[in-house]
Specification:
The protein contains 75 helices and 32 strands. The chain is an alpha+beta fold and about 1900 residues long. It starts with a helix and ends in a 5-residue tail after the last strand.
Length: about 1900
């Protein structure tokens, strides 16, 4: 039966089966089953077209499938968009509308929604995603688009049963068919690539079937609900998979099912029925013994895995792996899978096949169905462990990771769903277990601390799992679900989970250990630190921030307490495991202490937000001491790394130090570390803490009063920087308030100020540099209103400045003046600088501000800032400032600085003063008076007896006993007469130390080493404190002490000191100011003004001001100090180290001497280069000083009778250019099509942004000239040359090729920088460039080089013609010869053999170079732009090309001057013009041609000839009539073929003759624009005026021309076409005069420029309306008296050699006689319009999104594919593929090809996907920048930020300017070869 059905028509079969199925007897269902058995037979190919067709027809039940789809869509009840996309899709994210940070919208929904003014961005999806429009759990309803805002399922009718009935029967079988083939096609992939290929093949075979399912999902809610039922129904799955319904195929089904079970087992999974009793026991054991790092951990707990037996010494990633025998994993989570429905097995196979894209899309397309979403989420969670296992083994883990996240982000972003699966499916337990399991696979033994007895295990950062971020998808999911409050709450309440999580975190504690290399440089620099920092940030810090978000209020106190408790337990276990006692192991550091940071951050949150008591959360003192050690070790190591002590470890260690403080990491790393140290400092004994700091920084030995010491731990060169590091660390520790009481606002402000002070920042850089909470739900959203308000409060916006030639600047933010004045905090800057140079940069900017505002003129010190008050919990931190240990250190350092001991620096003094001032600003509560009284009783020669800094400042130290090397200068001194006090001081010092130990005996019991270390440290300080300061004691200058072969013996000496800190401060004041008695307490003059000084005045300044400020504060804080200061100042001039003053003076003298010498050297150098610099400045910077012009224009020197002198910039010699040793101008020759892109319309063309808009090239100048030359060649002579070699002249007849100019497209433009060089010098320069191995951005082989002086790009040298300046005098005089005489003279000169100074017969160096440069000019453009004649390479073409080069350069100069000559003068372009030299070269080559007298246009221009003589013969085309010819071309031909001594009178004569022709052309053109009636009227009115001066009356001439042209019936031919174009204009005499002037102006401008270059007289300036008259008078066409006449008329310039009407008749006759052959073209050829608007680029839309949306999905015209990198030509609007292989022609990619066709080698392309512009110039290219900027004036290259971009018209003008002036090569510096690959 089924077989017979198979043969029938599908639609009719489907219809009959549908009818059968709707009956109740079940026969139809049976028939359908049989048919499906045949159609979906396993033997058939899985998805052949026939199978798909059957499925479609049967589902449609007799309808066509398309109609069926439409009908089903009508019942779509989905309210969500749900569009699924894959990687690289462009989507949008609106933070204003989003509830979840993962929310995204498709372009259609975004554009249809209301998001104006919102904080949104466009992004390219990395992993794929789905549109959330309509989903109120992810985004606010206000952001829904119009389609989904009002979509509800209530008004959608119910689906009729019969419509979907067939689908319900068919779909289970289709899905079973898919699953059976997935089972069949699967083989376990091993290392064999063939197996992987098999899997790909299976997937390809199934693609059509999956596509069918995907199409079904797009039919809407009705079809999706049926698919959901099929996929999730347990019974259907059970029936179909057990084979009950598959009659006749049971064997296949059974075998197929076995394959499935094999795959399950092969994955290390078992179904729950097969689970053995042992696995239950294992699971229980695993669950009960979660702790793996307990204190009892023994060696038996680990064993090395069998498959990883590798030698531990082989470097990173090769160390032995460790396996934990007590597995933490719950085997029910890891190993058991049981599938109960199609969906579960389908997901299983999706994972097995490593998430094929089609399957993923199908599964995600179903998500809008709510019941499916829940079922699928549960299934996904069920397979979570299996997914992870597959991911670890995958070869394509990156792709797979993206696909996993593509799915999981859709499921876990919904809080309600996440909560549901957490409760029902143990989601949290599964995730934590899976993460633990994953990390367990790459553990190694930690080597931190005690390598032998270390039982801690850490992750191995060299493993691919960490290196490739394979864990990322799982961590990302975990962070995502922790962002939901309900889920995070469950996590924080579950102690088992917290304990597991702490175990997980402890795997990262101490990873990537660095050991300092002491002997040789490390052989292999490991880069594992990237992996380590990424792992800590992503796997530890981000989940931590997620949890912290939910611990903000008092109600969540308990959660914080629990986390803190588990942190402490984990830390205790860690200390036990690494066998830590009290001292860190030397020379090793790890930057990774996540447990410490968890503890610190939760403490901070508890105090700040939850008002918990700090002491209740702190451990005992011993634990605090242990916790302090490793973070402190990191701070000391940072200092060591910056001191170059780790230099043998390679660059990577610097990379770690920089990453640790970098903006993305700092608030998860250095900030918690410093906060933890602040807590330890506030709770531990301050003496112990301070001593620990100096010991850790290895500078204890340095803190001696002796001038020499021995330091076992440090080399001398590192001592200074380590001491600076230790003091700076203390200052940061005591100043920083980030976790000690600052609000979020204050933190953000401080961060912003610090970054802006280092350098002006763009908005995006600032956003990136402000450390933000890495968790997306943290509250401070980058770019939010909160951020913007703060930014506008602290910074001013500097809009970008645009100048042609300037670099493309971005909009910058710069600190306000008040910020510098009151908020600049160097401490915050030091904390946040990645590069140390940024601190200096901030100080330089600060100095600049002070100088600019006049607050301080010399070099300032970092300003002291008073700190925000501390949170009461942390008050103990200030005890550090009031401990004896610190005071002894400060005293010692002040003493050492005053005595000029080695390794002291200004920075040390600055930090010492900072600490003293901090102490004075934070005095303890008890009254200072009591202390003072107490202090008086004590004997005064001991170390300090109190802890208050105010008291200790005036305490005098008399003697100190020191141990020092025997070589030290102090040893030779006699001890003082009475030694009792010194011994007593020493004994008292020791006693004091023991007393301290006794006082704190309770602490000693806790951790006995504390007392030991403190005692030792106190003794060291007491013992090693150094030299006396007495005037009598003459001390030799301390030289750097170098040990002889043996270490010198240490000896003990007693030094006399007799100083207090106050006396030392006053001495330092004298020393810094360089004057004796420089400090005098001002209150002695005015007793009431102790504290009246303005504190702001005191903040900015140097060390002197800092000391004064401290002394003032000291005096204000205590009476005793005030008296001490007065007493010290009243004493005689304070004793100064004997040699000090001398050395200071000497230093000052040396300094002055050095400065003087430097000045002299500078003067000498300046004098040496003065002339060269002057010439460079004049040419390059366009200085307007005529007397100092560089001699490059002919005769520009002032002296008469002397030759023009040129400077060679290579050899430096000056001299004239000669025949034998010619000089040349450095020039750049480039092909240009700029003029060819001019249009008639003054409005620029708009870039098309829709299918309706188009750009047509017909109206461009290039196209118009091409059409004209083609028409002329069709009807007139194209060539006809006779060569007369005897004369060395080429004689030719007139032809079309002399009637026009070419070069509008592909002409050669010549420009120079104005510098000259000898041509032989240039050749040797090029040779040296060829031999230079340095990578150059230009090609020397193509003749390219850079000017040796100004480095401007060039590619040729234009020889300067040798000539004496007296030749000018021949050209200048204007005499009164008649016009006819002059015409005759011109004609005679044309007939002569041109008396060329360079005789062709004698070939000189100059003529060779001229020929050579002519070759360069020809090769600068493509052949197609030179050959216009019928015979390629003919002399005709050369002649046309040469005068066209002159025409192009004149026209371009005109464009550069703005299209007119109203400004006059010698513009910037003329100052560096090389036209004069170019005309010489062209003239030399053009004089090789001589026009045959019979065809000389001059004859026909100046006298009557017989027109019919050269009339039409049968075989020959006529000549081009003069009225068709281009007058400017004729001018250039006549001027350039004249002998060289062209007199100005002859030039004027030629211009006058040609003006007559031009005027006739103007009137002829005008006559064609009249209507028939107007022509008749003007014809008659002109006849009436023939009496008086008819030659100069335009009315007479117009009348005559109309008469003449009417004879040839030309008007009749044209009238029909012209009327519509002309409209109904009424022509008045004024409008006729205006039209004629506009027609003639382009010629007058070009001619005036030519005259200006030939004869050197400057152009006068004028108003726009006076331009015609001014130019006519300048050219000698008009007497100056007539120019000012109000009634000025263009016809007044006419000067006819013979009767005007006769000559005009002749010219018109030429047209009418030849018109019959081309009557339809007459109008086009005769009616010329020489006016073109200035060239400009296309007009771009204001918003970049308009361009992007239209073009980024647009298909390429050639290959019909969407290009990967689409680009747009901004000159003509052509859409091209960048780097597209599909559109390649003869190895040229499309952009390069287009640049040659459109711009003759210059192309300007906008890259659609990057918003940047790329310039192609010949064989090179460069990135120009972007003309679209965001609201902050910034580019967004590659659209990474995706913010809205708007056109910056200033930048676009700069781009256009560079295109028009051909300056891309000079202004853009970063060029590279494109190898035709763009």
């Amino acid at each position: 039966m089924a077989a017979s059905l198979l043969g029938r028509d599908k639609r009719s079969t489907a219809a009959s089966l549908k009818a059968e199925c709707s009956r109740q007897d079940g026969r139809g269902v049976q028939l359908l089953g049989e048919l499906l058995d045949s159609v979906l037979s396993p033997e058939r190919a899985v998805a052949e077209a026939e199978v798909i067709e059957w499925c479609k027809s049967l589902m449609a039940g007799g309808e066509s499938f398309d109609d069926f789809c439409k009908m089903v869509r009508g019942y779509d009840n989905a309210t969500l968009c749900g569009l699924v996309w894959t990687a690289n899709f462009v989507a949008y994210r609106c933070r204003t509308c989003g509830i979840s940070p993962c929310m995204s919208l498709c372009a259609e929904c975004f554009n249809a929604g209301e998001h104006t003014g919102h904080d949104f961005n466009m992004f390219r999806s990395q992993a794929g995603g789905a549109c959330d429009c309509g989903d109120s759990s992810v985004m606010r309803e206000s952001g829904f688009c119009k389609r989904h805002r009002f979509a509800t399922s209530s008004n959608i009718p119910c689906v009729p049963n019969e419509l979907m009935m067939m689908s319900e029967h068919i779909l289970p079988r289709v899905i079973l068919h898919l699953i059976q083939h997935l089972r069949d096609g699967y083989n376990e992939p091993d290392s064999d690539p063939a197996t992987e290929r098999d899997l790909q093949k299976t997937l390809q075979q199934m693609e059509p079937l999956i596509s069918l399912l995907e199409d079904l999902t797009k039919m809407g809610g009705a079809m999706r609900s049926i698919l959901t039922r099929v996929l999730t129904n347990h019974q259907i799955y059970k029936d179909l998979c057990s084979g009950d319904l598959c009659t006749g195929e049971k064997a296949y089904t059974k075998k197929n099912y076995e394959k499935y079970l094999t795959a399950l087992k092969g994955s290390g999974l078992v179904s729950s029925e097969e689970r053995s009793v042992t696995s239950v026991l294992d699971q229980m054991a695993g669950a009960s013994n979660v702790t793996i790092l307990g204190a009892t951990a023994g060696t038996g707990q680990m064993d090395s895995s069998d498959e990883e037996e590798q030698d531990g010494s082989q470097g990173v990633g090769k160390r032995k792996r460790v396996k934990l025998s007590n597995s933490t994993k719950d085997s029910s989570i890891m190993d058991i899978l049981k599938h109960k429905c199609f969906l579960e097995e389908l997901l299983f196979w999706t994972v097995k096949y490593e998430f094929p894209q089609k399957m993923v899309t199908f599964l995600l397309n179903m998500l809008p169905d709510q019941s499916y979403k829940i079922a699928f989420t549960k299934t996904f969670v069920q397979h979570y462990a299996f997914i992870m296992k597959t991911l670890i083994k995958s070869h394509e883990s990156d792709t797979m990771s993206n696909r996993i996240v593509h799915i999981s982000v859709q499921l876990f972003s919904n809080e309600e769903l996440a909560r549901q699966v957490t409760e029902e499916c143990q989601l949290l337990e599964i995730m934590v277990t899976v993460l633990l399991y994953m990390m367990e696979s790459c553990l190694i033994k930690s080597e931190l601390q005690d390598e032998e007895n270390n039982f801690h295990v850490v992750v191995n950062c060299g493993e691919p799992l960490l290196k490739n971020n394979t864990y990322w998808p799982l961590v990302s999911d975990f962070i995502n679900i922790l962002s939901h409050q309900s889920v995070a709450k469950r996590f924080l309440e579950d102690q088992g989970l917290l304990q597991m999580w702490m175990n997980f975190v402890s795997f990262f504690q101490g990873m990537n250990l660095n050991k300092r290399e002491l002997n040789e440089h490390v052989e292999f620099e490991s880069q594992t630190y990237y992996a380590a920092f990424a792992a800590e940030l992503e796997a530890c810090a981000q989940p931590m921030w997620g949890l912290l978000t939910h611990c903000k209020i008092r109600e969540t106190q308990e959660y914080t307490r629990t986390v803190v408790r588990y942190c402490l337990d984990a830390l205790q276990d860690w200390f036990d495991a690494i066998n830590f006692v009290d001292e860190p192991a030397p020379n090793q550091v790890t930057f990774h202490l996540p447990l410490h940071r968890y503890y610190a951050m939760f403490l901070s949150k508890a105090i700040r937000c939850q008002q918990l008591d700090l002491d209740s959360l702190l451990p005992d003192q011993e634990m605090l001491m242990k916790m302090m050690v490793h973070p402190l070790q990191i701070q000391a190591s940072l200092s060591e790394i910056h001191s170059n002590m780790w230099v043998r470890n390679g660059l990577q260690i610097k990379g770690q130090a920089m990453t640790y403080v970098q903006s993305h990491f700092c608030n998860s790393m250095i900030d918690p570390d410093i906060f933890l140290l602040q807590i330890c400092a506030s709770r531990l004994d301050p003496d112990y803490f301070v001593s620990s700091v100096f010991e850790r920084f290895k500078v204890v030995d340095l803190l001696t009063m002796a001038s020499q010491h021995q330091n076992a731990a440090l080399d001398t060169e590192h001592e200074r920087s380590m001491l600076e590091g230790a003091l700076t660390f203390l200052v940061i520790l005591l100043s920083l308030r980030i976790h000690l009481g600052m609000t979020d606002d204050e933190i953000l402000r401080a961060e912003m100020v610090a970054q802006l002070c280092m350098s002006d920042r763009t908005h995006s850089t600032l956003l990136d540099l402000i450390p933000e909470n890495p968790n997306p739900k943290s509250g401070i959203i980058p770019g939010s209103y909160y951020f913007e308000t703060m930014l506008s409060a602290v910074a001013d916006f500097k809009a970008p400045v645009f100048e042609p030639g300037g670099s493309m600047q971005q909009g910058m933010y710069t600190p306000k003046a008040d910020v510098w004045n009151q908020e600049f905090d160097p401490i915050m800057v030091i904390l946040r600088t990645v590069y140390r140079r940024d601190v200096q940069s901030a100080m330089d900017r600060y100095m600049g501000f002070l100088k600019q505002t006049g607050k301080f003129t010399s070099t300032p010190w970092p300003p002291y800032r008073e700190r925000a008050p501390l949170n009461p919990s942390y008050k103990g931190l200030m005890r550090i400032l009031h401990c004896k240990t610190l005071h002894i250190v400060l005293f010692t350092l002040l003493y050492k600085i005053s005595m000029d001991h080695q390794n002291m620096s200004e920075h040390v003094l600055c930090m010492v003063l900072y600490l003293i001032e901090l102490g004075l600003d934070n005095l303890p509560e008890e009254t200072a008076e009591e202390e003072e009284m107490f202090g008086e009783e004590r004997c005064s020669d001991s170390w300090f007896h109190g802890t208050n800094i105010a008291t200790n400042l005036h305490h005098i130290i008399n003697y100190v006993r020191v141990r020092l090397p025997e070589t030290a200068p102090e040893v030779t001194r006699e001890p003082p007469a009475s030694t009792s006090s010194d011994t007593s001081s020493f004994i008292q010092g020791s006693r004091r130390a023991t007393a301290l130990t006794r006082e704190n005996s309770n602490t000693a019991q806790v951790f006995s080493l504390v007392a030991e270390r403190r005692k030792k440290f106190q003794e060291i300080i007491n013992r090693n404190s150094g030299s006396a300061i007495q005037t009598a004691a003459v001390r030799p200058k301390t030289s750097k002490w170098t040990a002889p072969n043996s270490t010198p013996q240490l000896t003990t000496t007693i030094l006399e000191i007799r100083e207090s800190m106050l006396s030392l401060l006053i001495k330092l004041h004298h020393k810094l100011s360089g004057k004796q008695n420089s400090y005098y307490p001002f209150w002695l003059e005015d007793s009431e003004s102790t504290s009246t000084l303005d504190p702001m005045q005191q903040i900015h300044g140097d060390g002197i001001i800092a000391i004064e400020r401290i002394l003032l504060k000291t005096a204000a804080r205590s009476r005793q100090n005030k008296c001490s200061i007065e007493e010290i100042c009243r004493k005689v001039a304070p004793p100064v180290p004997p040699k000090k003053s001398n050395s200071a003076d000497k230093k000052a003298l040396d300094k002055e001497e050095r400065r003087q010498k430097a000045r002299e050297r500078q003067q000498k150098l300046l004098a040496e280069f003065a002339s060269r610099q002057k010439s460079f400045m004049e040419t390059a910077m366009d200085l307007e000083s005529p007397d100092s012009d560089v001699a490059m224009d002919v005769g520009s020197t002032e002296q008469p009778d002397s030759e023009t002198v040129y400077d060679c910039v290579i050899c430096g010699q000056s001299g004239p250019s000669t025949e034998e040793r010619p000089t040349g101008l450095v020039v750049l020759l480039q092909a240009s099509s700029v003029l060819g892109h001019r249009r008639r319309s003054t409005e620029p063309k708009k870039l098309p942004t829709s299918d309706e808009e188009q750009i047509y090239p017909e109206d461009t100048c290039g196209t118009a000239h091409d059409v004209r030359i083609t028409d002329l060649q069709q009807y007139f002579k194209d060539a006809g040359f006779g060569l007369k070699w005897a004369l060395m002249k080429i004689k030719f007849q007139s032809s079309c090729l002399q009637s026009v100019s070419i070069g509008w497209e592909g002409g050669v433009y010549v420009q120079t920088c104005g510098h000259t060089l000898h041509i032989d010098c240039h050749k040797s320069y090029m040779e040296s460039l060829r031999n230079d191995q340095v990578l150059q951005s230009f090609s020397v082989d193509k003749g390219e080089f850079t000017c040796p002086l100004c480095r401007q790009f060039a590619n040729s040298v234009l020889p300067c013609h040798p000539e004496k300046s007296e030749e000018k005098s021949i050209w200048s005089p204007y005499n009164s010869k008649s016009l006819l005489t002059l015409i005759k003279e011109v004609e005679e000169q044309q007939e002569q053999l041109g008396m060329f100074p360079v005789s062709i017969c004698s070939i000189t160096n100059l003529s060779k170079e001229m020929e050579s440069v002519m070759k360069d000019i020809r090769s600068a453009t493509q052949k197609k732009y030179i050959d216009y004649g019928k015979t390629p390479g003919s002399p005709d073409n050369d002649f046309l090309f040469m005068y066209s080069v002159a025409r192009l350069n004149l026209e371009l100069e005109l464009v550069h001057r703005g299209g007119n000559l109203c400004l006059g003068g010698a513009s910037a372009t003329t100052k560096r013009s090389c036209l004069n030299q170019l005309l010489h070269v062209l003239a030399m080559h053009m004089r090789l041609f001589r026009i045959d007298s019979a065809y000389n246009p001059w004859t026909r221009l100046t006298r009557l000839t017989q027109v019919m003589d050269y009339g039409i013969c049968d075989d020959e085309k006529p000549e081009v009539p003069l009225l068709y010819r281009d007058v400017s071309s004729l001018l250039l031909i006549l001027v350039l073929t004249m002998p060289q001594e062209l007199h100005k009178e002859h030039f004027t004569c030629i211009v006058k003759v040609l003006y007559n022709l031009l005027y006739t052309q103007a009137v002829s053109t005008l006559s064609f624009q009249f209507s028939e009636e107007e022509r008749a009227a003007w014809k008659n009115s002109g006849k009436l005026k023939t009496m008086c001066n008819s030659d100069k009356s335009w009315e007479v001439l117009l009348s005559h021309i109309i008469c003449e042209l009417s004879k040839g019936r030309l008007y009749n031919a044209s009238n029909t076409g012209q009327v519509s174009m002309l409209g109904t204009n009424v022509w008045s005499p004024q409008s006729i005069e205006y039209s004629i002037q506009q027609f003639c102006l382009p010629f007058l401008r070009t001619t005036s420029l030519l005259q200006h270059h030939l004869f050197g007289n400057d152009l006068p300036s004028c108003q726009r309306t006076e331009e015609f008259g001014m130019l006519a008078s300048y050219l000698g066409l008009l007497l100056p008296c007539l120019q000012s006449n109000d009634e000025f008329c263009s016809s007044a310039c006419l000067d006819w050699p013979i009767a005007a009407l006769d000559l005009i008749s002749q010219w018109c006759l030429e047209v009418t006689t030849s018109a019959e052959s081309h009557s339809e073209q007459v109008t086009n050829l005769l009616v010329q319009d020489p006016q073109w608007s200035l060239p400009c680029l296309l007009q771009l839309p204001e918003n970049y999104n308009t361009i992007f949306q239209y073009y980024h999905r647009k298909a390429c015209v050639h290959c019909s594919k969407v290009p990967k990198d689409p680009a747009l030509c901004l000159v003509c609007g052509t859409f091209v593929c960048l780097k597209g292989q599909c559109c390649k022609q003869q190895s040229y990619c499309e952009c390069v090809l287009h640049s040659q066709n459109c711009g003759a080698g210059t192309g300007i392309f906008l890259l659609i996907n990057a918003s940047v512009i790329i310039i192609i110039r010949g064989h090179r290219f460069c990135l120009w920048g972007s003309v679209y900027l965001d609201t902050h004036g910034e580019e967004d290259r590659d659209l990474r930020r995706g913010k809205p971009l708007y056109l910056c018209s200033e930048r676009y003008k700069v781009l256009e300017q560079q295109w028009v002036t051909h300056t891309f090569d000079h202004i853009n510096k970063r060029w590279g070869p494109h190898y035709n690959g763009l």
